[in-house]
């Protein structure tokens, strides 16, 4: 079937990657820019769906940011992401969308849970405090999608990716995630011949990373399948501490100075690695190895982002 596709958030890192991936696969994508539709406005979303009638909806829209931004603006992360998710899922159900792929985050899982994290860990204990607002919003959308799926037999599925990075990422140090922040700091430190680079936190926490192109590949894979699961983890498979990542990036970029870990900044969850066995059993696995992806990522920042900052 040739779907008419809405990619909500198609100008962001994730949405744009999906947009380009599906364009290459000859999908008919409905153009929907930020200026055209505010997904937090229920009436506008309802009106848009009624007029455009998409068959397939991919929710990649939302407010995203790093650990400090999440901590400082919990209410914004909760409200904006809740409204976006609920409005998109509600309109998808109301106007007969045949398939919905709702994107969440690995941060929906409890602060202390068995590793690698299985889907069954959801709501088994309390969340990490620093990004609780964002996590609650993503859980809300996941559960709404799940309830509709069970009640009405909808092909609504949510994907929970590991920490994402790639082309189109946010490199603003005030709101960025850990990888773009580190790439920017090391690159600028090398250019400015600084003696050291400050990394927030202890450096001991461990994270799993997924290239955004692999996520787009996973979404395309899910589109073609009749999925029986309500939500599925999508991991990159490789697990590194922030300290290890810092030294990897230092070497890639060629910075010769010291790395100073500032413990006054929060660490967040000590360890987060996803159990992606469901995706593996379905027949999908990531292709981009982290170190290879980081070489391209660093080059992307230096060539495409830094000259315009």
Blueprint (SSEs and pairs):
Layout: E1 4-8, H1 13-24, E2 28-30, H2 42-52, E3 56-59, H3 67-72, H4 74-94, E4 99-103, H5 132-152, E5 155-161, E6 163-165, H6 178-191, E7 196-200, E8 206-211, H7 212-223, E9 231-234, E10 239-241, H8 242-253, E11 258-262, E12 271-272, H9 277-282, H10 290-305
Parallel strand pairs: 1-2, 1-3, 3-4, 4-5, 5-9, 6-8, 7-11, 8-12
Antiparallel strand pairs: 8-10
**What form results from the Cα inertia axes?**
globular
In whole angstroms, how far apart are the ends?
43 Å
Briefly, what CATH class of the domain at 4-166 and 210-236 and 273-288?
A: Alpha Beta
Radius of gyration: 19 Å
Order of helices and strands: EHEHEHHEHEEHEEHEEHEEHH
Helix proportion of residues, in percent? 40-55%
Tally the beta strands. 12
CATH architecture type of the domain at 4-166 and 210-236 and 273-288:
3-Layer(aba) Sandwich
CATH superfamily of the domain at 4-166 and 210-236 and 273-288: NAD(P)-binding Rossmann-like Domain
- The number of distinct helices, counting runs of at least 4 residues, comes to 10
Q: Looking at CATH, which topology of the domain at 4-166 and 210-236 and 273-288 would you report?
A: Rossmann fold
**Uncertain runs with pLDDT below 50, 5 residues or more?**
none
Question: What's the overall average pLDDT, rounded?
Answer: 96
Oligomer designation: single chain
What portion of the residues fall into strands of 2 or more residues?
A: 15-25%
């Amino acid at each position: 079937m040739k779907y008419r596709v809405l990619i909500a958030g198609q100008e962001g890192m994730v949405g744009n990657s999906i947009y380009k991936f599906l364009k290459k696969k000859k999908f008919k994508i409905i153009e929907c820019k930020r200026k055209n539709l505010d997904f937090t406005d229920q009436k506008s979303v309802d009106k848009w769906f009624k007029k455009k009638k998409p068959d397939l909806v991919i929710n990649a829209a939302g407010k995203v940011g790093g650990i400090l931004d999440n901590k400082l603006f919990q209410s914004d992360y909760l409200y904006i992401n809740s409204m976006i998710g609920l409005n998109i899922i509600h309109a998808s159900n109301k106007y007969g969308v045949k398939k919905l792929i709702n994107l969440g985050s690995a941060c929906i899982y409890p602060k202390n849970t068995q590793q690698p994290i299985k889907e069954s860990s959801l709501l088994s204990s309390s969340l990490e405090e620093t990004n609780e607002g964002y996590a609650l919003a993503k859980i809300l959308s996941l559960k709404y999608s799940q309830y509709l799926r069970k009640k009405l037999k909808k092909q609504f599925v949510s994907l929970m990716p590991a920490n994402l990075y790639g082309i189109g990422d946010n490199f603003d140090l005030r709101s960025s995630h850990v990888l773009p922040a580190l790439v920017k700091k090391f690159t600028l430190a090398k250019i400015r011949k600084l003696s050291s680079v400050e990394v927030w936190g202890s450096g001991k926490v461990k994270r799993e990373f997924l290239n955004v192109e692999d996520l787009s590949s996973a979404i395309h894979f899910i589109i073609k399948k009749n999925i029986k699961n309500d939500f599925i983890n999508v991991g990159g498979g490789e697990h590194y501490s922030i300290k290890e990542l810092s030294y990897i990036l230092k070497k890639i970029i060629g910075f010769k100075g010291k790395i100073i870990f500032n413990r006054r900044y929060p660490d967040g969850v000590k360890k987060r690695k996803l159990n992606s066995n469901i995706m593996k059993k379905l027949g999908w696995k990531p292709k981009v190895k982290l170190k290879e992806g980081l070489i391209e990522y660093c080059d992307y920042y230096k060539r495409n982002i830094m000259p315009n900052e």
